[in-house]
Amino acid sequence: MAVTRIEENHWQATQGDTVVGGADVSRRPDGRLFLSVDAWHAAVFDRLAATAAADLGGPVHTVVDETDDELVAAWQRAGFTVGRREGEYVLPTDPAVTGLDPDLLPPGIEILPAGQAQEGPLRALDRVVRDEISATVGWHVMPAEVVPLPDGVTVLDPTRYAVATRAGEYLGFVRVAPVPRRPRIGLVAVRADQRGQGLGRALLAHALGALHRAGSASAWAEVHEANPAALALVERAGARRAGGNLELVRP
């Protein structure tokens, strides 16, 4: 069996003239590399994972369903270890169930519904939030999804963001992905100097209330299980844990 790097982001395993597996790598906007391997046989998987990881050098990540013991073991054979655990939570949207009143806001706060925020201030707020995360807990605590974006672009679709404002100043946002089967709460973020006022709760209440009015009975969110504030926020809204992922990393 031969493993060849046929493109910068793709490796191929062949047995004679037959392709028996492949591996691909994607780079997140925060710079992390995430590797995926597609192979039917363990020996092929092992060769692809080890070869691609060695070629890439540096830290390499992957995401695995927490219940897939066989796949976790395969990545561990290639030198990967658990870096973080991320729970998947289903949230009801009905305010009568969540206990979150979307009309009950902290003093002086207004929520701009999705699509109504000005793009310039929204992008500036996003940059502030990202810089604060980088300077404190780090991006390793953020959701592990791989979203390929152009260099320097972090807000792909401004119409997905609802924003908390006070006197025209942008203080925090919630991002919702309108997935047809079950919408996804992608991120709730508040500027560091504005925390502790209930803005995160207000933003979540707004997002869930809007989804309820649009006919969605539930939404889902991914939460880093070492983030007690985020866990408390969704659990107080009646979220139930429906599964989880492991982010594995090879130094």
UniProtKB/TrEMBL annotation:
The record's annotation in InterPro entries points to: Acyl_CoA_acyltransferase (IPR016181), Bact_Acetyltransf (IPR050832), GNAT_dom (IPR000182)
UniProtKB keywords: Acyltransferase, Transferase
N-acetyltransferase domain: residues covered? 109-251
Short name of one Pfam family: Acetyltransf_1
Q: Name one GO molecular function term.
A: acyltransferase activity, transferring groups other than amino-acyl groups
Question: Does the record's keyword annotation contain Methyltransferase?
Answer: no
Q: Does the keyword Acyltransferase apply?
A: yes
**PANTHER family cross-referenced by the UniProt entry:** AMINOALKYLPHOSPHONATE N-ACETYLTRANSFERASE-RELATED-RELATED (PTHR43877)
Q: What is this protein called?
A: Acetyltransferase (GNAT) family protein
Native source organism of the sequence = Streptacidiphilus jiangxiensis
What is the organism lineage in this UniProt record? Bacteria, Bacillati, Actinomycetota, Actinomycetes, Kitasatosporales
